[in-house]
Design goal:
There is one protein chain. The chain has 402 residues and is of the alpha/beta class. It folds into two domains: 11-49 and 296-400, Aspartate Aminotransferase, domain 1; 52-291, Type I PLP-dependent aspartate aminotransferase-like (Major domain) (Aspartate Aminotransferase, domain 2, 3-Layer(aba) Sandwich). It has helices spanning 11-14, 20-33, 52-63, 76-90, 105-117, 135-140, 161-167, 190-202, 226-229, 261-272, 280-291, 295-315, 343-354, 380-400, and strands at residues 39-40, 100-103, 123-128, 144-149, 151-152, 157-158, 172-178, 206-210, 237-242, 255-258, 322-324, 331-335, 356-357, 359-360, 371-375. Strands 2-10-9-8-7-3-4 form a seven-stranded mixed sheet, sandwiched between helices. It has a four-stranded antiparallel sheet with strand order 11-12-15-14. The protein has a two-stranded parallel ribbon with strand order 1-13. Helix 4 (76-90) packs parallel to helix 11 and helix 12 (295-315) runs parallel beside helix 14. The longest helix has 21 residues, at 295-315. The protein starts with 10 loop residues before the first helix and ends with a helix. The protein binds pyridoxal-5'-phosphate. Pyridoxal-5'-phosphate is lined by residues 44, 105-107, 131, 178, 182, 210, 212, 242, 244, 250, 255.
Amino acid sequence: MVRAPVVAPSTRISDLRPTAVNAILAEVREHQARGQSLVSLMRGEPDLATPEHIVEACARALKAGRTAYPDNRGELGFREAVAAKLHRDNGLQYHPATEIIATTGATFGIYTALAALLNEGDEVLLPDPIYDAYYSPIRLCGGRIRSVTSKIEGLRFVITEEALEAAISPAARVLILNTPWNPVGTVLTRAEIEIIARFCERHNLILLSDEIYEAITYGDAKHVSPPAAAQGLRERCVLVNSLSKTYAMTGWRVGYCAGPASIIQSMFMVLAQSSRGPATFIQDAAAEALGGSQKCVAEMRTEYTKRREQVIAALTGIPGVSVLPPEGGFFAMLDVRGIGIPSNEIRVRLMQEHDVVVVHGAAYGPAGEGTLRVSFASGGAKLASGLAALRAGLLQMKESRK
Ligand SMILES: Cc1ncc(COP(=O)(O)O)c(C=O)c1O
């Protein structure tokens, strides 16, 4: 008999759920414990090393004794590097003293912004499907989720004005956007952002713009930072970014937010009572990453471009399956509706019978049903064998439905 715990968690906590990736990871571990060898094309963790000059900057900072408490807003040198980067790459002007704050990764930036902005019962509009790690911090901060249902149009997930309007209610306060968009790979165009900007203005919404995949775009798709795209948006936008993906620095836990001084001041209040910012020497290395040579970023983009082509080539021509070619990020969505089996069942069968792990699109919201997310954050032999297993599994499932 399982005994009830002596101390129960708060109701706020018992409302939280693991992300899809973490839930599937628990299943993967069970299978591995039984001796099954699995190839995972699931996680958004780059397999590339953090560039050497960034590691060296960190070592230098440590040796120079940069180990005291950081400025809780972020070290000034880091905030200045962020301001210079936002100007150089995004055409944005933010004042390092009042409009920028350092955070422990984008994850904590998102949490801090929500904590600073939401009152109990406020609604947060979230595209569906979307990176599911947004759900829990919204709940933790007292917010309620309203889905903006997206759809596939011409091999691309899109958010229409009608879908936005259908989600609005008097309680709506924040809209979260992620461009390039995890999991679906769409990079929003300037015209699409302008529609969203007008919508935010009409309904007095704050935009939380998660731009963590900005550097990873393909072909003609180019990242446009929403506050730079549309007049008036800057005053109602919190830009969230981190170094995790751009510089292969997931474990360093360093990111930043930029926004109007009043919102950044409220976020500072949250930060000063909680994490108090990334470690001082980590911020020095992050300043070097943003301000130093960007050759490493171009090299990573070239590598992901090759992998993207490898994924498309390996998964094209499977009856009942279409690849939605990603415009950005390192995930490809497969439209598997033509197989005629629910996406979670396909995922489970791929894992059990074909030793390959992907995420079912429904894990990211009901509008993701009928799709699978395939990660190419890892490459090499792992990607090649995973893609071969995926192709074989999908072919076999389609065949068995005839
Ligand atoms: C859209 C999106 N935002 C934020 C994060 C988390 O970023 P960080 O490592 O900076 O906390 C991820 C990680 O996968 C992500 O996909």
